[in-house]
Amino acid sequence: MNMKICFVVRSLFSQVPTYTTTHLAFEAHRRGHEVIYTTLNSFSCTDEMKVLATGASFANLECSNRLDFLRALHSGAAEKKEVNLSEFDVVFLRYNPNESEMEKDRGRNPSIDFGRILKLQGVMVVNDPSGLSKAASKMYLSSFSSEIRAQTLITRSTLKIKTFLRDLKKPAIIKPLSGFGGQDVFFVRDPKDININQIISSVSKNGYVMAQEYLPAVKKGDKRILLLNGYPIFSGKQAACYLRVSAKGEIRSNIHVGGRRKRAKLVTSDLKIIEAIRPKLISDGLYFVGIDVVGEKLLEVNVFCPGGINNINELYGINIGKTVIQDLERHIRYRKTGVSKAPRTSKTFEVMLQ
């Protein structure tokens, strides 16, 4: 069975070999599926509600590795053509509106609007547009039990933030609600800090502020875990997870600011968190998700462009992209036979819970 699969990205020319999107797209191409890359700028919706897009097609190309695959994309060897996305099997919305100042300020994400139309036409949209709307900000964390997440306040009130910090009686993190990539993240050791007003003003200038208890366990790293349909991804017995450890003197663990990656294992507290959040993730159609866990607490749920496949593959010598595409094949196969949901095939996670 061959799938028609489209990856919606911000820019064709900004793609690099280590991106999770590249791993997924190349693996789909390698397995014989029709792969298209496109951007939101090329979308159209006709009067007949057909969603059209001009993209780069790899249908007639042979690429032996991810470097050749991207060279074809960047050089123009991948044929440019207009396609009807309403006829596709899978459309991946690998597009984060938080990375666009214009769309962040206006609260817009056009990919969600197009995605809703495609879903109504029977296309599997990853992730579900309605789920993306719900999980568009870090406020989504508040929908989960307070037992599995850090103490948090979301507000634009300087007074409320100061009161929260005072009552917390421990260090805290202050960051933008709509932030990404570790931007504008501040560590506050003492609410009496002379710079507290300046910090709050700086973070709140573009929107709401998230004040969150600092978790000392972050010194050992935060754990990125990739999930498919609410379950951790496994390649054999290896879970798709790894630790990101902050550089000395840095509170952020993001790799692009000097964080180091380390091998990790799923532990009992991770399993309890995943069990607790799975029903909502499935209900909201959030099929491919990355969660960040510090100690025994859920820190973040990444739904727009969850990444980490390259780090995981290199750390363990596995191929998570293959696992994801195989699962999509299974879902589409069952869809085409009239079954609404594909049964789970892996028992690894259930065995770990016993």
Q: How big a fraction of the residues is strand?
A: 25-35%
Unreliable runs, pLDDT <50, ≥5 residues? 101-107
How many H/I helical runs? Answer: 11
What is the H/E string?
A: EHEEHEEHHEHEHEEHEEEEEEEHEEHHH
Q: How widely separated are the two ends?
A: 35 Å
The whole-number mean of residue pLDDT values reads 88
Given the helix and strand composition, which structural class is it?
alpha+beta
Q: How many strand elements? A: 18
What kind of sheet is the major sheet?
Answer: 6 strands, mixed
Strand order across the largest sheet: 4-3-2-1-5-6
Indicate the percent of residues in helices.
Answer: 25-40%
Radius of gyration: 21 Å
Can you tell me the overall shape? globular
Description:
The protein has 354 residues and is of the alpha+beta class. The protein is 31% helix and 25% strand. It contains eleven helices and 18 strands. The strands form four sheets. A six-stranded mixed beta sheet has the order 4-3-2-1-5-6. A hairpin with a 5-residue loop joins strand 2 (34-45) and strand 3. Helix 1 packs across helix 10. The two termini are 35 Å apart. The relative contact order is 0.13.
Fold topology:
Elements: E1 4-9, H1 20-30, E2 34-45, E3 51-57, H2 66-75, E4 79-84, E5 90-93, H3 101-106, H4 110-120, E6 124-126, H5 129-134, E7 152-155, H6 158-168, E8 172-176, E9 186-188, H7 196-204, E10 209-213, E11 222-228, E12 231-232, E13 234-235, E14 238-239, E15 241-245, E16 260-263, H8 268-283, E17 288-294, E18 297-302, H9 309-316, H10 320-336, H11 348-353
Parallel strand pairs: 1-2, 1-5, 5-6
Antiparallel strand pairs: 2-3, 3-4, 7-10, 8-9, 8-10, 11-12, 11-15, 11-17, 13-14, 15-16, 17-18
Helix pairs in contact: 1-10
